[in-house]
Amino acid sequence: xxxxxxxxxxxxxxxxxxxxxxxxxxxxxxxxxxxxxxxxxxxxxxxxxxxxxxxxxxxxxxxxxxxxxxxxxxxxxxxxxxxxxxxxxxxxxxxxxxxxxxxxxxxxxxxxxxxxxxxxxxxxxxxxxxxxxxxxxxxxxxxxxxxxxxxxxxxxxxxxxx
Amino acid sequence: xxxxxxxxxxxxxxxxxxxxxxxxxxxxxxxxxxxxxxxxxxxxxxxxxxxxxxxxxxxxxxxxxxxxxxxxxxxxxxxxxxxxxxxxxxxxxxxxxxxxxxxxxxxxxxxxxxxxxxxxxxxxxxxxxxxxxxxxxxxxxxxxxxxxxxxxxxxxxxxxxxxxxxxxxxxxxxxxxxxxxxxxxxxxxxxxxxxxxxxxxxxxxxxxxxxxxxxxxxxxxxxxxxxxxxxxxxxxxxxxxxxxxxxxxxxxxxxxxxxxxxxxxxxxxxxxxxxxxxxxxxxxxxxxxxxxxxxxxxxxxxxxxxxxxxxxxxxxxxxxxxxxxxxxxxxxxxxxxxxxxxxxxxxxxxxxxxxxxxxxxxxxxxxxxxxxxxxxxxxxxxxxxxxxxxxxxxxxxxxxxx
Lengths: 162, 402
Known about the structure:
The structure holds two protein chains of two kinds.
Chain A (H helix, E strand, L loop, with lengths): L6 E5 L2 H11 L17 H8 L3 E7 L4 E7 L4 E6 L5 E8 L5 H5 L3 H8 L9 E4 L4 E7 L2 E7 L15
Antiparallel strand pairs in A: 1-2, 2-3, 3-4, 4-5, 5-8, 6-7, 7-8
Chain B lengths: L2 H18 L19 E7 L8 E9 L7 E10 L3 E6 L20 E7 L2 E14 L2 E11 L8 H4 L4 E2 L3 H4 L3 E5 L21 E3 L6 E2 L21 E6 L11 E7 L14 E3 L6 E5 L2 E8 L6 E3 L21 E8 L5 E8 L16 E3 L8 E2 L1 H4 L2 E6 L4 E2 L2 E2 L2 E3 L1
Parallel strand pairs in B: 3-9, 4-7, 6-8, 16-21, 17-20
Antiparallel strand pairs in B: 1-2, 1-13, 2-3, 2-6, 4-9, 5-6, 5-10, 6-7, 10-11, 12-13, 12-22, 14-25, 15-16, 15-18, 17-21, 18-19, 22-25, 23-24
């Protein structure tokens, strides 16, 4: 999929730089937050300002990847359709990101789908027609992704969310 | 006969010999300087207290620090090489039993949000002496899992998944984390600023807020705190020979690597791990750099789009029409490689009365980039788990070897 990349740009506005320096001085108290699955792309930047990291945007012909690397070592990627909707998210790092924020309105559905007594321990996967969430790893090392199958752009597939 | 039983029997025979006065053979004249610690705990694969298929269980004793009377012995504790430290479900402890609550500098109780791949567990952090077999970790952080403690902060449940705060929802009476790391969080949780990932909370009456937790108070892999045999563990389980599973299987959790006559490395291959505890598994031509062995995962979890999944009722398992033989190669950071052969059977056709299976697997998409080698991997192997920073005859941890 790398061949589809047409541009890479860093999004670091004046305000972002100030915030970044503030982070270095350990005085920012806001907790990390991200745009939500199914939400509008314009919220990513506002959310990124609350997160302790740098946003990098990579565009392909079919979608954009907004990648945030947090100071805590957690990497979040958000996959955005040409019309500006987040259709997939992924995460990797020593801690899970705030999935309530990242999954947005789909979080409660995800939690409800997993409820019940344990019949297995390990990765947790739900595959609903409208929502797929996959969470793996172990303590101090987690990875996972979520996507909305019906919003995957034409010519693309769920495999791009990684 | 279990290794523990053998040790007890040998000890009894030696004691008899000592009582006999002068009947000991001459080649025992040079007595060893001190008896080594009993470093073998019995482990059992079976359903445990909540009917968890392929649950790997042991028994631990917790006491108030320094006490020999305020103690509780709890079985049905998962042996987990994918986490660090002891956690016990509150309801599995005897009524009225309690351990000293950890507090912050203002006297507020400390609680923890422990996060697993499939959910989270909430409850107070206490301090306890932890004894397993003949080994003791003194005054270490332990979590008592209790969803009714204070009120669960929103940030804790935001990690997603199931609230695993009861024996039924956790699948066990608790978990003994004996993996490659020392603490369950580490340095990141010792800071009082926005970079703290939020595992430890201070809980005044107004509600729980993220707090710094010093390393010495964090919930800690007890093995790292043993006076001896503290550089890692061996999980030893027999092979499962029946393709339809077994009712139960017994093995040993051996403490220490190369510290006693019973825990030498032998001819195993050492796979060193990256900062997150991963090695690489090459499977079906894909390189999966987020791979790990995990006795707390009850099955094998890996990506294979050619294997049929079980459909909606058993969505998270593979159900090939007949058992398939597969192979993969594990590669450590040090470049050492080993090939693994394994079977995957139809999970929907397994006899309900059996609790031990070496051929049950479930899908993970290749895009998730990891192969989770759960309990089936451990059957028929001695798996060495070396703790970060510890010296062993096989090098410095973290590594896994088998």
